[in-house]
Amino acid sequence: MARRCELSTKAVMSGNNVSHALNRTKRKFLPNLCNVTLISDALERSVKLKVAAATLRTVEHRGGLDAYLLKEKDENLSKKALLIKQEVRQKLAS
Question: In terms of pTM, does the model score above 0.90?
Answer without folding.
Answer: no
